[in-house]
Amino acid sequence: MVQEKQPVTTTSARVLVVEDESIIRMDIENALKRAGHAVVASCASGEEAIELCAEHKPEVVLMDIALNGPLSGIDAAHVIHETAGSAVIFLTANSDVATVNRARTAMPYGYVIKPFRPVDLSVAIEMAVHNHVQDKRVRRERDDLKMRLMGEGDQSALFITVKGRQQRILCRDIRFIQALKDYVGIQVQGRRHVVYSTMASMEQRLPKDKFLRVHRSYIVHVDAIKAIEDHQIVMEDGEEKIPIGGLYLTTVREKLGLDGSLT
């Protein structure tokens, strides 16, 4: 990395660094910390990067393209894009057309050529964070609109985007909905679908006689409830327990016809 006066960043991001050359990796970490970013973790392989993204959920991943091991940086970025949704910025010494075209398929938010300066990283991260936030907002609004239009007047099913196609989910098969920061997780028969939406939007789309908001982060299907114990809802499989938020106790009690013991 070319050394120069450290830039002052206006955006503090949570960053994962993926670089298989230890000296370069440490230089990058130090530069990011001086710029005010939080390095949540660092690693040297694509496999580790995927695991760390699932664990730490970084906003940005600085990913070397040429990693040692079975997975290249591009391979790992494809998986991260599908699972964690973090903004990936590629680091590479190659700017040839073939490499750029391969990298483009992973939908990165930036491409920084080595050797780079600290300011190059800061600018790339600033742009990636801004564009990623805007993209998530647009996708969430688009997906919410699709769900409303494709299910207009019919609350028996939802349409969600899964790998580029519209998939119909019957509401009767949904066990619960969980808030996941900018997304929601729809638990359907042992499988979770993650979509861009909000809990408020999901409440509007679901039939009110069958679904109940029990916590700021949970909506449950009343037919999937097995029992209530210790301010928790035990789901029908007996394994999943969902907390009941204090603000929702009265509503839960009235909706389920419980006595006054739930206080």
CATH topology of the largest domain: Rossmann fold
Count of spatially separate domains: 2
Question: CATH homologous superfamily of the largest domain - what is it?
Answer: Response regulator
CATH-level-2 architecture of the largest domain: 3-Layer(aba) Sandwich
CATH class of the largest domain: Alpha Beta
Could you give the count of β-strands? 15
Q: Unreliable runs, pLDDT <50, ≥5 residues? A: none
Shape: elongated
Question: Could you tell me the strand content as a percent range?
Answer: 25-35%
Return the average pLDDT rounded to an integer.
86
Structural class: alpha/beta
Q: Termini, distance in Å?
A: 60 Å
N-to-C order of helices and strands? EHEHEHEHEHEEEEEHEEEEEH
Rg, Å, rounded: 22 Å
Counting DSSP H or I runs of 4 or more residues, the number of helices is 7
Most strands sheet: 5 strands, parallel
Assembly of the depicted chains: single chain
Protein model, in words:
The chain is of the alpha/beta class and 263 residues long. The chain has two domains: 14-137, Rossmann fold; 153-256, OB fold (Dihydrolipoamide Acetyltransferase, E2P) (Beta Barrel), CATH 2.40.50.1020. The chain has seven helices and 15 strands. The strands form four sheets. The protein has a five-stranded parallel β-sheet with strand order 2-1-3-4-5, with helices on both faces. Helix 3 links the parallel strand 3 and strand 4. Helix 2 (46-56) packs parallel to helix 3. It starts with 13 loop residues before the first strand and ends in a 7-residue tail after the last helix. The mean pLDDT is 86.
